[in-house]
Amino acid sequence: MFQATPVNHRNLSRQKLFRFLFGSMTALLILPVIIVLSTLIYKGAPVISFEFLFANPTNGMTAGGIFPALLGTILLVIGALLASVPLGVAAAIYLSEYAPNNWFTRAINIAIINLAGVPSIVHALFGLGAFVIFFRFGTSILAASLTLAIMTLPIVIVATRESLQAVPMAFREACWNMGATRWQTIRRIVLPNAVTGILTGVILEVSRTAGETAPIMFTGAVFFLPFLPQGVFDQTMALSLHLYVVSTQVPEMPAAVPYGVALVLIGLVLIMNSVSIALRMYLRGKKKW
Amino acid sequence: MVTPDSQVEVMASTATPIKLGVKNLSIKYGQEAALDNISLDIHEHEIFGIIGPANAGKTSFLKAINRMDLFNPEMQVDGLIEFSGHDISKVRNVYGLRSRIGVVFPLPVGLPLSVYDNVALAPRLSGENNKAELNVIVERCLRRAALWDEVKDRLDSLGSLLSGGQQQRLTIARALSQEPELLMLDEFSIAVDPVTTMRIEDVLKELKQEMTIILVTNLVQQARRLADRTAFFLDGKCLDIGITEDLFTGEVSDPRTRDYVEGRFG
């Protein structure tokens, strides 16, 4: 009764083939991640200590710690998030929920996607011209954060827009039919169900912001600073730039230090992301349809 | 002096005021006509049935009443719709209009909120935040929608996780929480089992005391059971309108109506 026909056999062997194909692609992708991470841990972990994390660099940066760079990166990421998340989410809400679906809106959407493809060095020059010189912020944490924010805006906008549009239209219509305004519908139904997607965008943004070097080089980050920044108009050190410096610019640098810096950078990104990942898991447990 | 004749006329018109007056209503989506020159009056406290096959324009009719055309630039509404005597195309506070009209869709839409919040949403939207008051509204509406006994112990669980039939009753409870003057049901029983359907039908008969009901249905027998008057829509035209029982006993102005209610259509 259940004897396999030739068609059954063919379907089954194809099913096996494709499963193997997709599985091996996934393995291939994971491999580099594992190699990079294990190399970093193997070579970088020995230099990581309390002093390495929380002391100033000494001896031409070949000894001491990386605290100013660590703090600088945290400040830059927070500054960039403060500027780009409200701006990007607001723009995405307008584009997704309010703007009429016409050629102009579509053109703006395409422009935003293209903005994500602009090289970071171009953003750096824009930030130099706009924030450092035109707005007279000087090379400062403020100018560097805003430059990073502009660079990562497309990530936030696209992620937010996608997650807003993933909320079923029927929910909106049910609310509108009750007499809810667009804003009431957005605030009570659409936005709470899009938060997890928006947080995914924030995770991507944190990773990108913490790792970028070019946009902050001209706008606020410096190789070495003998003191910690006192305000947003001060310059700062940053991990990404520090990694570049200790890898290429300093003679007689102990070989393990760059690995240590890179490990701290990755660890910092992971810790920052785990906050939003935890928040996302909590919210996903609450909201379902 | 008032003659006896005109007195009778006055009494007749005040006894059943018109809740919804529709004159020469046409609806188009782009070039495609959905509804063609419909005129009808719906009286207060009646259940008005609309029957007809798919694509007859029944849902478009309901959308026009609730000014859903404002959310769809493709949708073009011509003609006059008067709600309690007010031309709805001139109503500036469309949110106030919509909050007086409850809508139930063919497929249940449990919003991704708790059962409680689903029913409390409409009162909250109109500014009611008193917890005790909301509790009363939620219980009353859930009881009326014949859902209270099944969900009273899990008001905090998600409305969107209820079964299909329960979600539809939740949708009805939500519509009732608006305390609507007009309740529009669009093929509400598609996703509901027959037993629940009968329970909801009993509820509708009671609700008639308080509000006007438009019942769009693809079950002609449901219209016969519930509707005081019924209209038959076909391809965007209203072919027949009259006392429901008349339509079912052959007193029709278009032979296609008889064919449809007797199931001999097409």
Task: Produce a short descriptive summary.
By secondary structure, chain A is an all-alpha fold. Chain A has helices spanning 6-44, 50-54, 67-98, 103-115, 120-134, 141-165, 169-178, 182-211, 214-217, 239-248, 256-286, and strands at 57-58, 63-64.
How is this fold's topology laid out?
The complex is a heterodimer of chains A (289) and B (266).
Chain A: H1 6-44, H2 50-54, E1 57-58, E2 63-64, H3 67-98, H4 103-115, H5 120-134, H6 141-165, H7 169-178, H8 182-211, H9 214-217, H10 239-248, H11 256-286
Antiparallel strand pairs in A: 1-2
Helix pairs in contact in A: 1-11, 3-6, 3-8, 3-10, 5-6, 6-8, 7-8, 8-11, 10-11
Chain B: H1 4-15, E1 18-29, E2 32-43, E3 47-51, H2 58-65, E4 75-83, E5 86-87, H3 94-99, E6 101-104, H4 115-125, H5 131-144, H6 148-151, H7 164-177, E7 182-186, H8 194-207, E8 212-216, H9 220-226, E9 229-234, E10 237-243, H10 244-248, H11 255-261
Parallel strand pairs in B: 3-8, 3-9, 6-7, 7-8
Antiparallel strand pairs in B: 1-2, 1-4, 4-5, 9-10
Helix pairs in contact in B: 4-5, 4-7, 5-7
Task: Fill in the keyword field for this structure.
heterodimer; A: 289 residues; mainly alpha; MetI-like fold; two-stranded antiparallel ribbon; 11 helices; 74% helix; B: 266 residues; alpha/beta; Rossmann fold; 2 domains; 6-stranded mixed beta sheet; 4-stranded antiparallel beta sheet; 38% helix; 25% strand; globular
What does this entry look like structurally?
The complex is a heterodimer of chains A (289) and B (266). The longest helix of chain A has 39 residues, at 6-44. Chain A has helices at residues 6-44, 50-54, 67-98, 103-115, 120-134, 141-165, 169-178, 182-211, 214-217, 239-248, 256-286; strands spanning 57-58, 63-64. The model of chain A has no long low-confidence stretch (mean pLDDT 90). In chain A, 74% of the residues lie in helices and 1% in strands. Chain A has one domain (63-286): MetI-like fold (Orthogonal Bundle). Chain A has 289 residues and is mainly alpha-helical. In chain A, strands 1-2 form a two-stranded antiparallel sheet. With 266 residues, chain B is of the alpha/beta class. Chain B has eleven helices and ten strands. Chain B has two domains: 16-100 and 180-266, Rossmann fold (3-Layer(aba) Sandwich), CATH 3.40.50; 112-179, no CATH class. In chain B, helix 8 (194-207) links the parallel strand 7 and strand 8 (212-216). In chain B, helix 4 (115-125) crosses helix 5 and helix 4 (115-125) packs parallel to helix 7 (164-177). The chains are: A mainly alpha (289), B alpha/beta (266). Chain A binds chain B through residues 100, 170-171, 173-181, 184, 188-189, 192-193, 287-289, and chain B through 66, 68, 71, 73, 95-103, 105, 107, 109-113, 121-122, 125-126, 158, 160-161, 171, 174-175, 178.
